[in-house]
Amino acid sequence: MRATIQSDAPSVEAQSLTKVYGHGNTEVVAMRDASFQVRRGEVVALLGPSGAGKSTLLTAVGLVNPPTSGRITISGCPVLDGPRPLVNLRAFRRKYIGFVFQKANLIPFLSALENVQVAMEINDAPARKARKRALELLDYLGIADRWHGLPSTLSGGQQQRVAVARALANNPSLILADEPTAALDSHRGRQVMELFRMVAHEHKAGVIVVTHDHRALDVFDRILEMEDGTLRPPTTG
Amino acid sequence: MNLAIRDIRHKLSRFLLTALGIGLLLMIVMGMAGIYQGFTEDALSFLNRAQADLWIVQKATRGPFAEISRIPWDLEDRAYAVTGVAEARAFVTQIIQREYQGKPLRLVVQGLAWPRDDGSELPLMAGRALGQAHYEMIADRSLGLRLDDRVPLGKDIYTVVGITAGMAGPTGDGFAFFTIPDAIAIQYDTPGEAIRLEREARRSRLHRQDLGNTQPLLLERAAGPASQLPALGTQYVSAIMVNVEPGVDPARVAKVISGWSDVTVYSNGLQQELMLKSIERNRKQLGMFRTLLVIISAIIMSLILYTLTLDKVHDIAVLKLMGARNRTVVALILQEALLLGALGYGLAYGIGLWVYPYFPRRVAITNTILVQLAVIVVAISIISSLLGIWKAMSVQPNEVLA
């Protein structure tokens, strides 16, 4: 099934997403009837206490952990109808979604540069072009001098910046970040948040960031709050 | 970007140690094949070198390479007399074990029809061919003898005048070449006391008969050397090798000789077949060990590759989360498996070249063996990576979040 995206469509639309784990007596509803929309170029914060269902929402929208019911449309392309995929999810993730997590999750046997480069090569980018862009991204994030270092030789902050560079590598239309600044100092954390904002605006990508860092909430265009698996009515940032 | 190369580079020492282990295992597989090949080559080496068209052996036996065969030496002359025969040579062979310089010396005594065959066509690596009718020998290198060594065998001492390479019998014992009379003397060597007792017994038997009492001269003869007694004087050899004249069909000559009621005649091909049959059980044994080793190697490689894959489960999940295709993940595991197999193969060959010469039996590594093993290694690498690939395919991208 060929995925066709529309450049003027919202970055992501979620309709009545519900995620149920287990069944019968062990049934747990992790997300209930969550509907929202993130426009292109919009940076949205997702707040909520632990266990509120933020990660469930993020992984559902990231096409990693499909919802039990509900519908997800990314850039105008319907991708999930409940647990049923409407496109090749892996190929879709590869092209249109970037991830940043609390742990950098870098591949330990690749250098900083290669960790960024591999994301593009997986997406069929020519090696030379991928390398050039990877270097540009590392430079942009202030770690160009450590391009050759293996993840084990980088600090936590440096690793996270490499992870951000990797998420940006393919110019995705949707970037999902799960507490990406948790391992960074406030200055670098804010830099990353502002970077997300810049990417969102420059590349017309929608960005959803799960965060507990209330100091940088002014960076966001909108704030979504979750509690007990349910999205609260939206507030503006 | 080749992920397999980068992963290997990251854990190079571990990869090299693993490859060394696999290499040693493959070296044993290769060695088994080499021993198997050496076994066959050794068994056939003399037959191939002798290039006889026909072998005349003792009636109803399978020839000297399969069992004891004794025929009179003068049968050589009878064979010569057959129309179409260009050459008939006596063949003497026997495995003996003696003590030399305080160590056991086990050798295959082989008679050469000197002076027609002085051993100059043997693969001599040092020294020369037999230069006289007696008391010289050519020894294979595997016997550990050196030029000019003087080896006492029977009642005589033989000087090593030549050293051959790669001449071993079916049992793996090295060949030693003598003139036929010397080989017979070694083969039928009897202690002096036994000869004296035999002569006395012979004289006693004759004494009890009228013939001995009426002809005292016979009593004197009976107490003398056996070679001077016409009835006992025939010397025996193991076989007679026959070569036919150019253009003559060996089958036609064989048909004539097979009409003789005291011998059996075989073509060289049939003799080879009988020789191989006589060592069939040993060859099968080696073949089965080799098969088992291949299976064991495959299992061990599977476990190693599975463990290597388990180490990368998180990285594979990250790759899948980023949207890597299955072929990217499969290539990572398969390429590592093939590189591991290739390096193991190279190490097996390198270490084998160094170690095999110290094996008690000849290890003959041929190009066929090398190609066969290469194919086996590729097959093992692919098969053993399947377990790892299966594991990798079952990894879910959301395991990154765990």
Write the layout of secondary structure elements.
The complex is a heterodimer of chains A (237) and B (402).
Chain A (H helix, E strand, L loop, with lengths): L11 E10 L6 E11 L4 E5 L6 H8 L7 E6 L2 E5 L2 E2 L3 H8 E4 L11 H11 L4 H14 L15 H13 L5 E5 L7 H18 L2 E5 L11 E6 L2 E2 L3 E2 L1
Parallel strand pairs in A: 3-9, 3-10, 7-8, 8-9
Antiparallel strand pairs in A: 1-2, 1-4, 4-5, 5-6, 10-11, 10-12
Chain B lengths: L2 H8 L1 H39 L3 E5 L12 E2 L2 H6 L4 E7 L1 E8 L2 E10 L11 E4 L8 E5 L9 E4 L2 E9 L9 E6 H8 L4 H16 L2 H5 L1 H7 L13 E2 L1 E6 L5 H8 L5 E5 H11 L1 H32 L1 H9 L4 H30 L11 H28 L8
Parallel strand pairs in B: 5-10, 7-9
Antiparallel strand pairs in B: 1-12, 1-13, 2-11, 3-12, 4-5, 6-9, 7-10, 8-9
Helix pairs in contact in B: 1-12, 2-9, 2-10, 2-12, 2-13, 5-7, 10-13, 12-13
Query: How many helix segments of chain B?
Result: 13
> SS-based structural class of chain B?
alpha+beta
The stretches of 5 or more residues of chain B where confidence is low (pLDDT under 50) are: none
Coarse shape of chain A? globular
Q: What is the number of beta strands of chain A?
A: 12
Q: Which percent range describes the beta-strand content of chain B?
A: 15-25%
Helix content range of chain B: 40-55%
What does the largest sheet of chain A look like?
A: 7 strands, mixed
What form of chain B results from the Cα inertia axes? elongated
Number of helices of chain A: 6
Number of DSSP strand runs of chain B: 13
What is the CA-based Rg of chain A, rounded?
17 Å
The ordered string of helix (H) and strand (E) elements of chain A is EEEHEEEHEHHHEHEEEE
Describe the protein in words.
- The complex is a heterodimer of chains A (237) and B (402).
- Chain A is α/β, with parallel strands linked by helices.
- In chain A, 30% of the residues lie in helices and 27% in strands.
- Chain A is built from six helices and twelve strands.
- In chain A, a hairpin with a 6-residue loop joins strand 1 (12-21) and strand 2.
- The longest helix of chain A has 18 residues, at 186-203.
- Chain A starts with 11 loop residues before the first strand and ends with a strand.
- Chain B has 13 helices and 13 strands.
- The longest helix of chain B is centred in the first third of the chain and has 39 residues, at 12-50.
- The radius of gyration of chain B is 31 Å and the shape is elongated.
- The relative contact order of chain B is 0.18.
- The mean pLDDT of chain B is 86.
